[in-house]
Amino acid sequence: MSTSPILAPLNAAQRAAVTTGAPQTLVLAGAGSGKTRVLVHRIAWCLEQGLASPSGILAVTFTNKAAAEMRARIEQLLARPVGGMWVGTFHGIAHRLLRAHWREAKLPEQFQIMDSDDQQKVVRRAIRGLNLDEHHWLPKEAQWFINARKDEGQRPAHIDTAGDHVLQTMVEIYKAYEEACQRAGLVDFAELLLRAYELWRDTPGLLRHYQERFFHVLVDEFQDTNAIQYAWLRLIAGERAHVFAVGDDDQSIYSWRGARVENMQRFRRDFPRHEIVRLEQNYRSTGNILDAANALIANNTARLGKNLWTDGSRGEAIKLYAGYNDIDEARYCVERVRDWHRDGGRFDDCAFLYRTSAQSRVLEDALRQADVPYRVHGGFKFYERAEVKDALAYLRLANFRGDDAAFERIVNLPARGIGNRTLDDVRQTARLERITLWDAAVRLIAHRELGSRAAGALQQFLSLIDELAHEIEGLGLDSTIELVVERSGLVDHYRKEKGERGLDRIENLAELVTAARDFELPEDDGELPLVSAFLSHAALEAGEGQAGSFEDSVQLMTLHSAKGLEFANVFLVGMEEGLFPHTRSASDPNQLEEERRLCYVGLTRAMKQLTLSYAESRRLHGTDYYPQPSRFLRELPSNLVEQVRLGGASPALDPRTRVVEDTNGYPYRLGQRVHHRTFGEGVVLHLEGRGAHTRVQVNFAAGGVKWLVAAYAGLEAD
Prior knowledge:
Blueprint: H1 12-18, E1 24-29, H2 35-48, E2 57-61, H3 64-78, E3 86-89, H4 90-100, E4 112-113, H5 116-129, H6 139-151, H7 165-184, E5 186-187, H8 189-202, H9 204-213, E6 216-219, H10 227-237, E7 242-247, H11 262-270, E8 274-279, H12 287-297, E9 318-323, H13 326-342, E10 350-354, H14 360-369, E11 374-376, H15 386-399, H16 404-410, H17 420-433, H18 437-446, H19 452-471, H20 477-488, H21 490-495, H22 499-518, H23 530-543, E12 554-558, H24 559-562, E13 567-572, H25 589-603, E14 606-615, E15 618-620, E16 623-625, H26 631-634, E17 641-644, H27 660-663, E18 673-676, E19 680-688, E20 695-700, E21 704-709, H28 710-713, E22 716-717
Parallel strand pairs: 1-7, 1-8, 2-3, 2-6, 4-5, 6-7, 9-14, 9-17, 10-12, 10-13, 11-12, 13-14
Antiparallel strand pairs: 15-16, 18-19, 18-22, 19-20, 20-21
């Protein structure tokens, strides 16, 4: 066994996982511990040892790229092509099943898969078919509802509306949408998984065939599975399959996409003959970085538990920088990148990680000013983002009615009942008369050449722009942007876009207000009105391309986008209460634990150097805030962190000196359970202040979140 070339490159824990004889195995694979290697070598080992045939292997992962790499590495290990294996994504394998068994799945043979845009169009038609007002029942929101229910394995008949009118209407839309899809032979991505699950569930003979075929079922990134994916796996595994699941509950950060970290715990219950193998040796980071990450994640209670270690060097201390403000924070980080580059390092070994995409704007400004090339990973530069361009289009049109591009962009955004036929009439009139779209719209309304409903909707838009133009006269630039964002309706529009993306869009709109407040008129634009100068600045920044794909450049990305990546030099910025952990997560213990897992992911992206930073003041929504340093900083061992600040470090800046229990003698700590005579049992979420003014934020099971003055609260600590 030990002489097999497949086992030769593995450490002891990896080898134990690969060669396990247990019928069910859960591999807890820590960050940088070689989880993909273990999965690939497990398949190769089973094939080499004759424990499985290629056709008896079903390996599932989450991306097509990962599936292709997995197959290529297996064939490289075996030094021969391997046919017959089913290696693919959940959606890819479900699609394969439905194509092979379209009759049993009650689908037409040539069924078509819809992308997200096409799905939304079908949802919109379903809403119209029910004679519902699509301005109130937004297609995007209904689409999110339908997909979320499918991810939970629920058809319309399974949903208990309990007399809730809104929920009942959503179920009716879901039902009408399903009927439309069935008539047209259309399948969305969520339907692929649900229909494949139902195919097996409702066709016992077919399920038995695949259960007898796939004796080895392997799953990558198990912590990211949702309800229907887990149910699908349970079904195919049956009672006899060898199940090999690889995941890390400490890196489960996608609950907003339906991922259920509790599936890691369910595995232990649903597969009683399981064995757990922990991969804890890390091949990525230094000892100091790993010790900090271990200490941080140990504050989470709902975890299976492991401790990362390395036989490599201890490495440098983690740097902690307290910026005077967010601009100072960004400048410091960029200077450290320039130092790295001057010392022979590459820019693309450096990454700026942040909690929300809106934070990139200040970092981008600092990088451009320092002439440092950069790329925004998995997204657009700040001024290229759709929501930012939407808001600026309102300002452009209010500033100049002849801006046809702005008119086209926002005339029906948010939706206000202006259809394509009306817009075609406006465009045709503009072409024939050689006038602007704005003037064409005015003419069509004046000459009563549109239906009353279309004319009313178009007039409402024109009036809004005219009112905006009047209201922003004499306002400062930031107040102008703030008014445009508010009056445009964009915030309410994006608030209905569920999940992290909609919230990010709203925060980007707020950051646009801050950008306006920070904007300084360039010396060579002294004659240009401030609004025009800002619009020109935004257009130029959006037009200036990012660094090329192969150009040496600093990488910017959200923490969610960083998962699975690694960089020699990482800057984790914005470590402040309300930002990270995010304010929308601080009052929910489960969400707070996910925020901590997200921080853990951020820390473990760093290979050699790690810098954490926060700002003592930050501009949000055009207003200066003075946030407290993140509680996550207080959870790091002080001996691993070296505070740095230009002009010399000050002990008063150490966030650990701001913890209540260190200065006031109160026995409270974050996460502690307490009891109040009126509100009952609760959990401490936050502490701030000193002495008699110390305040404690507690999430009470019965009374919700409360701020209490510690001296008078009468809290009893458990």
